[in-house]
Amino acid sequence: MTPELMPPITVNSKRRRLLSGLLLWPALPVSAAPAPPAAAGVSVSIRDDVGRDLTLRTPLQRTVIFNRYTTEFVRAIGAMQAVVGVDIDAAKSHRYWPGVTNAMFAGQGQSSPNFEAIVAMRPDAVFFPRNSDWQKAATVLGRFGIPVVVLTAWDVLKHEENVSLLGRLYGRSQQAANLNAFYRRYRNLLAQRLQGVVRKRVYIEEVGNYKTLLKGSGWHDMVELGGGHNVFGDITLFDQSSARGSVQGFSVDPEEILARRPDVIIKLQPGQYESHSRAFSIQVLQSIAARPGFEQLPATRSGQIYHMSYYLASACSKIVGALQIACWLYPERFADIAPERVMRTWLEQFQQVPALGGYTVSLAALRKSGDVR
């Protein structure tokens, strides 16, 4: 859904004048507008993901959330009635977010919030992940008495901490405990069954060709939790040219991939709830296998090139993605585990949407079926 199609959002003239000055941030000091009336409840002191100490009135009644992963957690603990604003990802995916309306659109993404829209929604908290422009948001919205909470729900290593915090803030601690039990079951399973494995070398690539994921991204942690060794996990971003990107998408030369000889290649694409077609997977996997020099890689020879949707990879703090990787890398240790069934539970039980399936395809499977030579 584009901003042009969104209904106009109005704020009173006093707030509009204040907001106009704030959107030119940094600007001269101005007097903050009064905060929205606090709901009845108790004050809870927290420390957010960037170490800031905040005090919030709970349970939260009106919240705006940037980043789909946080919104998924809130829905998983049954607190979507308290969400009044979301970013473009939720606003454009009506099948995955059937309860989200156009009036809830709060900005293009975590680095481009619509502050006027947010103020008009009168939230008692706004959530941003740590890789967003949360500093500016905290400055602008703080003038209106609207607290910004930094919570990074895509961080697989902080899942239980994040979910427990959301349970406290929304008054849904038991539901949060249920979600954590689901996550912990598979986190523990991975740890137990991967003991003593000789880790296989994995090259993971996002949508862009030759764009990999580095240590510091949740995708790197997903590979490592799944028993893989990220072949580019040794790169320190500070030693590299900024033109090559970030930990979430770092450009590498084809020769670098060939030199590191991955046993497994994982391509993340597309970012949609709907299943990707078999024809699309064929095109993706064929194009990777046909890259110059790739025919000599162990991954290509064995057919261990995998196409995986972001929606399965990212499910429940990427624990479902890690489980899928472990099943690919060490099938003898996970013969009784079906990641698609785990994904179905995540979607149907915790997200309350149908499980569509069809989120992964392998080059080996396409060769076996005759779709690819």
Query: Which CATH class of the largest domain?
Result: Alpha Beta
Q: Residue-averaged pLDDT, rounded?
A: 89
CATH topology of the largest domain, what is it called?
Answer: Rossmann fold
Shape: globular
Give structural notes.
There is one protein chain. This protein folds into two domains: 3-177, Nitrogenase molybdenum iron protein domain (Rossmann fold, 3-Layer(aba) Sandwich); 196-369, Nitrogenase molybdenum iron protein domain (Rossmann fold, 3-Layer(aba) Sandwich), CATH 3.40.50. Helices cover 38% and strands 14% of the residues. The protein is built from 15 helices and 14 strands. The chain has helices spanning 13-22, 68-76, 88-92, 115-121, 134-142, 159-170, 173-193, 218-225, 254-260, 278-289, 298-302, 310-313, 315-329, 339-350, 363-369; strands spanning 42-47, 53-58, 63-65, 83-86, 125-128, 148-150, 200-205, 211-212, 228-230, 245-246, 249-251, 264-268, 305-308, 360-362. The strands form four sheets. It has a five-stranded mixed sheet with strand order 9-7-12-13-14, with helices on both faces. A four-stranded parallel sheet has the order 4-3-5-6. It has a three-stranded antiparallel sheet with strand order 8-11-10, with no helix packed on it. The longest helix has 21 residues, at 173-193. The model is unreliable at 1-11 and 19-39 (pLDDT under 50).
Task: Give a brief rundown of this model.
The chain is of the alpha/beta class and 373 residues long. The chain contains 15 helices and 14 strands. The protein has helices spanning 13-22, 68-76, 88-92, 115-121, 134-142, 159-170, 173-193, 218-225, 254-260, 278-289, 298-302, 310-313, 315-329, 339-350, 363-369; strands at residues 42-47, 53-58, 63-65, 83-86, 125-128, 148-150, 200-205, 211-212, 228-230, 245-246, 249-251, 264-268, 305-308, 360-362.
